[in-house]
Amino acid sequence: LHYLQRNPQQEMDTYCYPVACALWDSGVFSRRTNFWLKNIRKMKQVTLFLVLLAFSLVGNAQPFQIQKMKDFSKISFKDWQPDTSVFCGGSSTYLRKGDDKVQILIDERIKQIMFSSVVQPYRYVYQYDVHSNKLIKSTIFFYDMLVGKTYHYGANGKITKEEDWDAPYKISIDELKTICKQKFHLDLMDVSLKLDVRRANHQKPVYVICIPAPYRRGPEGKYITLSADNGTVLFEKEIHSKAEFKACLNEIYGISEE
Q1: Sign of the dihedral through C-alpha 71, 73, 76, 77
Q2: In angstroms, rounded to a whole number, what is the distance separating the alpha carbons of residues 92 and 111?
Q3: Helices 31-38, 17-25: inter-axial angle, 10-degree rounding
Q4: Could you report the per-residue pLDDT of 184-205, keeping only the tens digit for each?
Q5: From CA 239, how far away is CA 247, in angstroms rounded?
Q6: Who's near 107: CB < 8 A, 6+ residues apart?
Q7: How far is it, in rounded angstroms, from Cα 152 to Cα 173?
Q8: Could you tell me which of 206, 185, 184, 191 has the C-alpha nearest to residue 253?
Q9: 118 and 131 in contact (C-beta within 8 Å)?
Q10: Mode of pairing for the β-strands spanning 159-164 and 205-212
C-alpha cells in the first residue's frame, strides 16, 4: 500500500474517474452513483489510496500478496480494460489485462473479485463484506476443484477459520501434473486442451481427468482415474456415449459395487 502524494485532483482525473466510468458502463453502479461520478471533478478534497495489482498468474502460486486484497475499497484496476469477449450485464463487470482476467461482482449481498487467466487453469476468488468492504473469504480453484485452503477472516482481518481441501489427497496437485506428464504426456496446465479435471472421495480419494472428444455434445472422451493416495492408474478408457459413461460411472469415480 502506498499514498499518492502528488496533486490529488490530477490523480482522481487520471486514475479513478476512467475506471469508475468503465464500471458504470458495464452496469455495476446505480443511477445515483452515476450522478456522483459525473460530478467527481468538482470535489475539492480527495484522499486517494490506490493499491496497484501487478501480478502474473504462473503455476499455482498466489498472484499477489493477500495483504493487498484485504480492503475492497482500496483496490485499483487502472491498467485494466473492459473484456469485450464477455457480455457484461447485471451485477458483474469483466476486465482484462494481457492474459489475465478479472470478474467483479457487486450486489446487495456480496462483493467479489475473481482473477483468472487465459493461459492457465487457476482461479483466485476474494469475497468482501458488502458494508465494511473488508475481506471475509479467499479461495483457490484448479479447474473447478477447490484446492489449497479457504480462509475466512474476521472484522479485524485475522483468520477465523481454515478449510483444507487438499487434506484427503496424498498426491498433491503439483505431483498430479508430473504424473500426467510422465505417464500420459498430458500437460494439465494447457488450457487449450479443454480438460475436465476433478477429484472425489466417495470410497477412496481419486483424481478424474477427462480428455474431451472432438466436437463432443455429452460426456464423450477419454477418462483417466488416478489414486490420490499413490498415483496408481485405476481406470483408463475411451467413452463414446452417454450410456457408456453411465455404465462406467462407478469405475470412473472409484466406487466399488460390493
Answers
A1: positive
A2: 10
A3: 150
A4: 999 999 999 999 999 999 999 9
A5: 10
A6: 91, 130
A7: 22
A8: 206
A9: no
A10: unpaired
